[in-house]
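Quick one, tokens below:
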């Protein structure tokens, strides 16, 4: 495999991931050609550096970038003493599917000596662990977070401030600002601070401070002792700085986060402010002392109380009151102020209650993201969604089953059933769009992005059939059924209407789902070809067979097996009555 995907790979180093099929006709290359584009898109979309798949024996069966660690063994091979192997050993034999392990940066030969940090998790097939998946964390993205996208001054750190991450070995885990902005000055400061030539050469050769620059300072020691605080001390470059530090709590990592700014810059505003206050203070004290002696008792004191009350009220302290002991106009003014604040408090409380009720009502009418846009004042809310799965389900037999019931009982039964459907939709992270009469419409992959939206909708369809069966047994109601249609593809979603608006989706995908329920048997799930292509490896289907589509022409449909004997038989009957020619 190393020969086929590394040595014989026509792409240069760094681009060897572009080879999807080595063309050797092996079973591995067949599987690799199928899944490599999907995994590569995942790595590129999230800007990860690499992705590893390792079986339980320690064999690296897949890497996205095809680095030299590919097709080696992490227990006995040349990389058995790397942090990749440490991560694998820590996850081997994991009992919990939610186990996650992070390993710190370490230089490894497979990455040409570059620092590598990873996060990994076990892979389970049912209750059995079959391997480990690991993702190489991107060094540059960590640097962008810590440095504010290399905009230190824009982030309020001035001309000398920076934030750095330090590991338990006292080596930096992030970009040094001065090394990034002025290398000559950076190395000059290291030499002036007494760093050894070997330490300086290590940073110079690496071209980065990560795993090369030591930060053996008091602030780092305090952070690793579990303390956080601020102080004035020399930083890792030997410069006198105002420093703030704290331990960084990340499972699997023992890091400290330290912020520096040179004291000359940090205290310059304070020094300037001190000089200004001193000059103005002398003048103001002379004036205020003279006036206060004359007016304080008769005029200034009551007004200051009122002004303080107004300031507190303006700052949001609506419980602020003003009390005057004198029986004059100031007392009347204080009473009027207190009555005004009390009235405003009551009105504010009522307004908040109404606003909260409005938000809750709006969240029940439209999806949460649409509710947020409406709350911001937007009115023309419409979007195209390129790939979603739509479910349209129609309840049958309810009118006949409840025609002898009182209206309140019939409505209550329907409400209970729809509520059960809604709860199931939340469990499968499916978005309910609306209920119209006996028709229930839901979608997955629209406002909540899911790569497996067709699977979730299929699971949801099977679940609501199970809910209906349980509902009929529990309520002693017979002859209820569901006709369910599934279709995947693009849709358009938006607000429809003016004062009484609703959020709706439409397009060929929705029409296809509606057409499916017109042709399906009761308690049968008909899926379009697009849904079948997405989940055919996960479920049993019957068909294919043709049904009239939304535009009048016939389309291919498949019946999803969901465990009901009647539904399976109905699907077989439908397939037998409308077979499809495999050649056409």
């Amino acid at each position: 495999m190393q020969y086929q995907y590394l040595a014989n790979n026509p792409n240069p180093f760094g681009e060897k991931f572009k080879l999807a099929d080595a063309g050797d006709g092996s079973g591995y290359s067949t599987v690799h050609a199928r899944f490599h584009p999907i995994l590569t898109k995942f790595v590129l979309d999230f800007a990860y550096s690499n992705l590893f798949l390792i079986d339980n024996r320690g064999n690296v069966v897949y890497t996205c970038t095809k680095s030299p660690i590919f097709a080696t063994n992490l227990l006995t091979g040349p990389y058995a003493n790397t942090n990749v192997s440490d991560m694998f050993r820590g996850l081997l034999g994991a009992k919990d599917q939610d186990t996650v392990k992070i390993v710190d940066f370490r230089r490894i030969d497979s990455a040409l000596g570059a620092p590598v940090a990873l996060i990994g998790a076990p892979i389970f097939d049912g209750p059995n662990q079959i391997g480990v998946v690991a993702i190489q964390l991107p060094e540059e993205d960590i640097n962008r977070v810590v440095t504010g996208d290399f905009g230190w001054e824009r982030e309020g750190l001035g001309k000398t401030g920076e934030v750095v991450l330090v590991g338990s070995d006292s080596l930096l885990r992030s970009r040094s600002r001065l090394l990034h902005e002025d290398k000559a000055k950076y190395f000059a400061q290291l030499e002036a601070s007494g760093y050894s030539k070997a330490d300086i050469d290590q940073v110079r050769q690496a071209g980065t401070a990560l795993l090369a620059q030591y930060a053996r300072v008091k602030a780092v020691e305090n952070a690793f002792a579990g303390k956080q605080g601020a102080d004035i001390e020399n930083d890792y470059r030997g410069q006198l700085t105002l420093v703030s530090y704290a331990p960084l709590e990340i499972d699997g990592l023992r890091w400290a986060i330290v912020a520096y700014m040179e004291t000359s810059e940090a205290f310059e505003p304070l020094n300037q402010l001190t000089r200004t206050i001193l000059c103005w203070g002398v003048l103001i004290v002379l004036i205020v002392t003279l006036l206060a002696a004359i007016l304080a008792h008769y005029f200034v004191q009551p007004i200051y109380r009122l002004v303080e009350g107004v300031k507190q009220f303006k700052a949001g302290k609506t419980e602020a009151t003003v009390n005057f002991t004198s029986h004059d106009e100031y007392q009347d003014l204080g009473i009027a102020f207190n009555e005004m604040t009390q009235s405003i408090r009551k009105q504010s409380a009522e307004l908040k209650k109404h606003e909260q009720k409005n938000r809750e009502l709006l969240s029940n009418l439209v999806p949460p993201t649409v509710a947020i846009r409406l709350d911001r004042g937007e009115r023309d809310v419409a979007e195209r969604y390129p790939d979603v799965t739509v479910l349209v389900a129609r309840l049958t037999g309810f009118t006949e089953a409840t025609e002898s019931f009182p209206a309140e009982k019939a409505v209550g039964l329907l409400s209970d059933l729809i509520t059960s459907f809604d709860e199931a939709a939340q469990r499968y992270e499916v978005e309910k769009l609306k209920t119209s009469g006996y028709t229930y419409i839901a979608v997955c992959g629209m406002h909540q992005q899911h790569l497996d939206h067709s699977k979730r909708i299929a699971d949801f369809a099977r679940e609501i059939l199970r809910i209906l069966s349980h509902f009929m047994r529990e309520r002693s109601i017979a002859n209820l059924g569901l006709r369910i249609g599934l279709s995947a593809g693009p849709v358009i979603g938006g607000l429809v209407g003016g004062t009484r608006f609703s959020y709706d989706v439409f397009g060929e995908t929705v029409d296809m789902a509606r057409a499916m329920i017109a042709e399906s048997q009761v308690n049968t799930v008909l899926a379009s070809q697009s849904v079948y292509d997405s989940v055919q490896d996960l479920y049993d289907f019957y068909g294919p067979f043709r049904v009239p589509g939304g535009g009048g022409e016939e389309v291919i449909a498949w019946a999803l097996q969901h465990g009901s004997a009647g539904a399976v038989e109905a699907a077989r009957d439908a397939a037998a009555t409308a077979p499809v020619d495999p050649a056409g």
